[in-house]
Automatic annotation (TrEMBL), chain A:
Homodimer. UreD, UreF and UreG form a complex that acts as a GTP-hydrolysis-dependent molecular chaperone, activating the urease apoprotein by helping to assemble the nickel containing metallocenter of UreC. The UreE protein probably delivers the nickel. Keywords: Chaperone, Cytoplasm, GTP-binding, Nickel insertion, Nucleotide-binding. It comes from Methylopila capsulata. Belongs to the SIMIBI class G3E GTPase family. UreG subfamily. This is Urease accessory protein UreG. InterPro entries: CobW/HypB/UreG_nucleotide-bd, P-loop_NTPase, UreG. GTP binds at G24, P25, V26, G27, S28, G29, K30, T31. One of its GO terms (biological process) is urea catabolic process. The keyword Transferase does not apply. SUPFAM superfamilies: P-loop containing nucleoside triphosphate hydrolases.
Automatic annotation (TrEMBL), chain B:
This is Urease accessory protein UreE. It is found in: Cytoplasm. Belongs to the UreE family. It comes from Methylopila capsulata. Involved in urease metallocenter assembly. Binds nickel. Probably functions as a nickel donor during metallocenter assembly. HAMAP family: UreE (MF_00822). SUPFAM superfamilies: Urease metallochaperone UreE, C-terminal domain, Urease metallochaperone UreE, N-terminal domain. Its main location: cytoplasm. One of its GO terms (molecular function) is unfolded protein binding. One of its GO terms (biological process) is protein folding. Signal peptide: none annotated.
Amino acid sequence: MLHPSPQTFAGAPKSTAARIGIGGPVGSGKTALIERLIPVLRARNVNLAVVTNDLVTKEDAERLRRSGLIEPERVLAVEAGACPHTVIREDPTLNMAAGDELEASFPGLELIVFESGGDNLASTFSLDLVDWWIFVIDVAGGDDIPRKKGPGVLKSDLLVVNKIDLAPHVGVNLERMLAEASAVRNGRPVIATNARAGDGVEALADAICRAVLFRE
Amino acid sequence: MLHIDSVVGDRAEPGLHRRLHHLEHHGAVETVTIASADMARRRLRLTTPKGEELAIALPREQKLFDGAVLLIDDDRAIVVRAEVERWLRLQPASIADAVELGYHAGNLHWRVRFEGECLLVALEGPAEAYFARLDALFAGRSIKSTVVTQDLAA
């Protein structure tokens, strides 16, 4: 196994901001969740910034900048250009550079949220880019999504099932969907949310604070 | 909760090795075993065998590794042991099967290594989950499969 050279350890700088990923299919509500998370995390005095990934635009970044929830300069956009998997997994260099830029601009930054460009169930985050990541699906996408066992569903540190308010309107048995999600993940955490109303967002913030900010 | 914000060094370094050897005689070295899938993380929470909670937050240019010393002082030390990685060794019987297997593994974004005429797939979950994805490929073909540990795959 390759080890860092011993000189790496001498005078090692203190750790930098925690980095988390939020991925999931197009339309599952990733940006809406971030819009709900920002005020909840800021109320807990978390110093944060966001990097959005879009295919060929800065649509999500502009939406957050206009939201008034966060200073616009704390939101950077990465344009994936093609396959959105690539910039969060195979070669996350652009996102890592965006994270570094935010840390340089905002000393004391504690948390950077990387929102993936919308994708299918196969996207996963490189742990070179993030420390911990969330995958967001929604009930309107179908209650069979957990059973399809996509890598995002299986490998994420936390699975969020969003738009739970829509379950009765799209014929989804929410209880069964959540149970199946938990089963395919071998009991790893699953949280149900309704980003529009803010339901479950405090629990989501709790999970983030506990996992990477080490707050109880 | 004990916060660890950098790796002290490698347990194999002579200076650290001596100090660890001394502490081991006093039963004062704790080893925390980390799953292979978690070794790439810079931030994680762990509980030591004695029940102490660790909050690890490394600088981005550092990584955990087998033998990383997280803490050492006159009274005790904490050292990382990387869980032995398991690999699925697949041996196709023909070039045609090998090409299709390689395509399939790439399409599933599996982490692989090569060993002669075998493809090694890193198991980051139950082997059954990997076999389930290979069912269609195995049908009517001759591909030998075995699960091996990191040492065997090295």
